[in-house]
Amino acid sequence: MNETWVQLAALAVFAYLLGSIPNGLIIGKLFYHKDIRQFGSGNIGTTNTFRVLGKKAGIMVFTLDVLKGAIPTAIAGALHTPINPLFIGIFAALGHAFSIYLHFTGGKIVATSAGILLGYHPILFFVGAAIFLITLYLTSMVSVGSLTVLTVMTITALGLQDWTLGVIGIFITGLSFYLHRSNIKRILNHNENMVKFGLGYQRRLRKQ
Fold it and tell me: Which N-terminal stretch is annotated as signal sequence (predicted)?
């Protein structure tokens, strides 16, 4: 194995181990003395952190989870590796979903996937952020916003003929739909959790 492939393997392992860090669990235990897995949806990600621990903790977890994807992707790009940096970044998403520190369980990869996009194509990241916020305002459901932006960004990548981003987008979107399967059931049953923001929440209040 030559030096280049050793470097790539090291980057992939680094990305996976970084992605595996359960920021929601750590912040919950360290600052709030709560195991976030025992509250709300039981998920360690941003949405459940906001719901259980509050805005400050949610922002911290979101930022750290985005960085988990952005850092290894940006490093791979800066080193001009012979493979697309996205192939390194995807290991961070896999780490987040299947954390070695949590017996290969984890989060739903949305924030970490956003970080991968930030490290690879910052403009698309901000476009995606705008799409997410608009969808969140219209539906008041984080899950709908998350799945919508992943789908739209994948279609956009294919439209731009960035085939690597498109193919990886298909993989990440498919995995995220699988990880959101309980949310999808609740959406179809009209009982998905809503944030107290936006038109969807206002409609629900009027029906009560």
Answer: none
150: which residues sit within 8 A by CB, 6+ positions away? 110, 113, 169, 172, 173, 176
Cα–Cα dist 22/175, whole Å: 18
DSSP string, 30-47: HHS---GGGSTT---SHH
Q: What is the DSSP letter of 101?
A: G
Q: Which pLDDT does position 1 carry in this prediction? A: 57
Rounded distance between C-alpha atoms, residue 169 and residue 117, angstroms: 10
Find residue 105's DSSP bridge partners.
99
| Euclidean distance between CA atoms 22 and 27, whole angstroms | 9
Give the residue carrying structure tokens 């029906």: 207
For residue range 86-106, list pLDDT tens digits in order.
Answer: 999 999 999 999 999 999 999
